[in-house]
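WARN no homologs supplied; continuing
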Amino acid sequence: MLILHEPHSNRVGIISDIDDTVLITQATSKVKLLSNTFLRNYLTQQEVPGMSTLYRAIHYGPQGDGYDATHFVSSSPSHLYRRINQFLQYRQFPEGSIDLKRIGLGKTADSLFDHEGYKLGKIRRIFETFPKRRYVLFGDSGEHDPEIYRQIAQEYPGRVVGVYIHNVTGEDPYNARFNGQVLFSSVGRIRADLIARGLIAPAQVPETEL
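OK structure emitted
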């Protein structure tokens, strides 16, 4: 399926991490991460419950009358692209771009250890490519997503509609690290917040599916 995105659209799109944001990898444990990555395939890998339904609701809008850009940005290596793409399709996430790290020795390769700089660069490119679009940002507490998204919100005032961080490390929700962001353990909290903001309709994400 080919999607042509209107660069001057002012609708709300999605920018999302992958590991432990939409795909359960348990990345904070190296043993579990390796097991979930290499001993499972796209049919057996588990979705963070309710996220595909939620993303489709945002993607198509509260009236369900169209679609806008969804972008997945991850520090996972690019050789996992096929598996990740298959997982997203199988779990019925909305169509969108997928940016993964190009690990290697050439000049065009991405740094193996520079997580923040890599993701900031990719997200800035999205914001510059679509200068009027606003975004909902999704990540997890396991690495630097809260800090990266705060930086983006400062650089592009008024264009970050909301930031939602999956609490995979048992963080205190009142930790200053998450100021202005929604720290969640279940999708129900995101659903309520997005409905209150008028970004999705209640019927798009039935509570029975969460």
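Strands lie at 12-16, 70-77, 97-101, 134-140, 160-166, 182-184.
OK
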